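Input (structure):
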């Protein structure tokens, strides 16, 4: 039952992260955090009491199985719907925010999408006993792969270091090149004119030092 500490807390934590990262948390009241704690507290409370544990997951009576397989209780499926709903909502918030701003963030969006759906697919295969996982839960493996994808996104695509910068249609369509840099002088956004001027693909500009780009532009060909 200890694994449910992560199973119940992570979906709510993922939603809070998505709201804070996209700037939506300020628009919501703080009671949202309290509401998100209600369902995990109920599930963990039911699992903590032996007399109610069967409402979530239980092992059928009888002789011990070579590979113990738990059965779903009456409240297990509402918990699955709630948890997966939070994860999907958080993923949708992140993807919509990133993809609305710029095509530069396509690789970051794909990374987030893969990291979101790997655990969901693993959980679904375990919940419905999909072959070849009738007796094995692929969720830990799927979650580990998702974590590896996120680490790759952070190290290679600077996933969490980049924040989408609001732009207008004027900036998007203007003929002058516009580069937006962070406090460290790395590119966090660029309009199509700058992509054409620098002669690089849009995704290659993210995270590059502005000084290096300008130096390359000034070098004779």
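Output (sequence):
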């Amino acid at each position: 039952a200890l694994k449910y500490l992560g199973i119940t807390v992570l979906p709510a934590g993922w939603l809070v992260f998505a709201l804070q990262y996209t700037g939506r948390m300020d628009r919501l009241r703080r009671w949202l955090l309290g509401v998100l704690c209600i369902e995990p507290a109920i599930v963990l409370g039911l699992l903590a009491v032996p007399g109610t544990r069967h409402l979530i997951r239980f092992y059928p009576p009888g002789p011990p199985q070579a590979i113990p397989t738990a059965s779903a209780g009456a409240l297990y499926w509402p918990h699955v719907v709630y948890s997966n709903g939070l994860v999907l909502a958080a993923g949708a918030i992140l993807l919509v925010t990133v993809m609305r701003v710029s095509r530069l963030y396509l690789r970051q969006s794909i990374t987030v999408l893969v990291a979101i759906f790997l655990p969901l697919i693993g959980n679904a295969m375990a919940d419905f006993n999909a072959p070849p996982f009738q007796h094995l839960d692929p969720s830990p493996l799927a979650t580990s792969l998702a974590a590896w994808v996120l680490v790759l996104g952070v190290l290679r695509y600077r996933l969490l270091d980049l924040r989408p910068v609001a732009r207008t249609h004027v900036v998007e369509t203007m003929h002058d090149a516009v580069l937006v840099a962070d406090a460290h002088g790395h590119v966090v956004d660029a309009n199509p004119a700058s992509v054409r001027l620098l002669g690089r693909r849009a995704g290659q500009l993210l995270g590059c030092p502005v000084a290096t780009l300008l130096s390359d532009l000034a070098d004779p060909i």
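Notes: The radius of gyration is 23 Å. Strands lie at 57-58, 71-72, 179-181, 187-190.
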